[in-house]
Amino acid sequence: MGVTAFTFDRAHAQAFVRFGLERGSTIRGWIPPITAALHAQMAPEYPFYGGPGNHHRHFLCTAGGRLVGRVSAFVNAKLVDEGGAPIGAVGLFEAIEDESVSRELLDAATGWLASAHGIRRIWGPIDFDIWRGYRFMTRGFEQEPFFGEPTNPPWYPEHFARFGFTVLQTWATREVRGRDAIVGLARATEARVRAFEARGYRFRPLDRSRLSEELGVLHALTSASFEGFLGFTPIPREEFEGLFAISRHALVPELIPIVSAPGGEPVAFAAALPDIAPAVRAMRGGHGALARLRFRLLPPRMRRVVLFFGGMLPGDLRERAGLGRAGVHLVAKHAAALGCETLIVALAASGNASASLMGEHRHAVTREYALFELRP
Q1: Residue 66 burial (C-beta neighbours within 10 Å; 0-12, 13-18, 19+)
Q2: Among 110, 128, 152, 325, which is disulfide-ready with 192 (CB 3.0 to 4.6 Å)?
Q3: Are residues 135 and 36 in contact, defined by beta-carbon separation less than 8 angstroms?
Q4: Mean pLDDT, residues 293-306
Q5: CA geometry: angle 59, 112, 25, nearest 5 deg
Q6: Phi, psi of 153 (to 5 degrees)
Q7: What pLDDT, on a 0 to 100 scale, did the predictor assign at position 183?
Q8: pLDDT higher than threshold 80 for residue 353
């Protein structure tokens, strides 16, 4: 068994991408990523690599003449601890079900971070940064995946734990199943919207006719809302817009309510999408005209709506207490009107107040996820 390290190498990069696609295809319900986007991640022009102070190294593990695993190590100059010390990351991890392979890969990646950059805290999995993908699923492998959800075999988190990583933070996905239950959730929070409207707040749907400008509003609100959250690092607006490269074609304005304060300033939002997993699968990893046609011919599944996240500007929290419930109300109300049968409230951090917004459904956890930490 041997490990090969590289930064930029065409042949190694192609093998790296190919192995990830092969491993993904073995996962139940896998949603193939856009292959061209994966190759772009390995090219020197990818935005992460040009960031001042950013460093990386990719690793391939071979045994018996065949590729059996891969991983990447990252130093993101913006990811630091409370004292300003850098936190390293490992991500893009894929391996066969062999703990010795995982150990070889993690030895190489964490060893490089510690020896070459003096890193004393390492988080994983993080693919470049939390915007592009992070966390392992730890429970719920039998569930039907939704677009944007971490997917991995169950032994990935097990191998990380045996290597010495410990759980740093957990997340959960909850589901409200049945149209009557979704309507009930909306009804239970309707009074919050009315109370805020009476005070001069305004709730409006996303305006698709000026989508770039609206994504700029969401970028500003997200950046301000999530500053200080675990793993948060700022990204430019154009990179934020790029995260919607596929999903922008399925945006439903009513599922993305934007809230303005009495003075007209946008102060909060919620972001939900119809589940586009079947349409993305239909693209088969392509991005050309035929793939885009397949996407459009297989419309998003309105029977499942995924509430991904929401945010609120820092400020007088007592003044804005209840805006979160108001956002949930609007998403649930419009999801029910669209014929939604399952409202998925995705990837809420443990201990986050968002669970309380679910009312009687706060215990309806169907999947769990974790981010791990190693202190070499």
Answers
A1: exposed
A2: 325
A3: no
A4: 83
A5: 25
A6: -65, 155
A7: 93
A8: no
Q: Specify burial of residue 63 (Cβ count, 10 A radius: 0-12, 13-18, 19+).
A: middle
Residues 6+ apart with CB under 8 A from 304: 146, 274, 275, 340, 341, 342, 344
Q: Is the pTM of this model over 0.70?
A: yes
Task: Report the C-alpha gap between 10 and 18 in whole angstroms.
Answer: 12
Domains of the chain: 2-170 (3.40.630.30), 179-340 (3.40.630)
Q: Token digits for 24?
A: 């993904």
For 50-68, the pLDDT digits (tens) are: 999 999 999 999 999 999 9
Q: Is the per-residue pLDDT at 224 higher than 70? A: yes
DSSP track, 187-218: HHHHHHHHHHHHTT-EEEE--GGGHHHHHHHH
| CB-neighbour burial class of residue 126 (10 A; exposed 0-12, middle 13-18, buried 19+) | buried
List, in order, residues 6 or more apart from 91 with CB less than 8 Å away.
Answer: 71, 72, 74, 124, 125, 126, 127, 128, 133, 134
Question: Residue 189: how many CB atoms within 10 A of its CB?
Answer: 21
- Residue 356, both tokens: 């309380």
pLDDT tens digits, one per residue of 136-188: 999 999 999 999 999 999 999 999 999 999 999 999 999 999 999 999 988 88
Instruction: For tokens 């391996």, name the residue.
Output: 95
Sole residue written with tokens 């209840």: 322
Which ranges constitute the DSSP H helices of the chain?
10-24, 35-41, 99-117, 155-163, 179-198, 211-226, 237-242, 277-283, 289-297, 323-337
Q: What is the mean pLDDT of the chain?
A: 93
Residue 84 to residue 156: CA distance in whole angstroms: 30
**Of residues 306, 305, 222, 229, the one with CA closest to residue 267:** 222
